[in-house]
Design goal:
about 70 residues, 5-stranded antiparallel β-sheet, globular, SH3 type barrels, alpha+beta
Length: about 70
Amino acid sequence: MRLHELHKDDKALIVKIHADKALKDRLHSFGVMRGEELTVKGCSLAKQTMEIEVGGTLIALRAEEAEKIEVEQL
């Protein structure tokens, strides 16, 4: 399952990030990495952006970034 498939208040565990090194490094700097738990805090209309919380940090992701994050829903 990919992150962009989740809805508000869903919780998930990050399984893998399918992205190039630059995007992986940027996500890692925010705490988005394999093994971390996240909560979806909100989505824009048409899910063009998502707000997630990882380790107490709120992060906004574009839909194309969220599609690259493989998760396991909790």
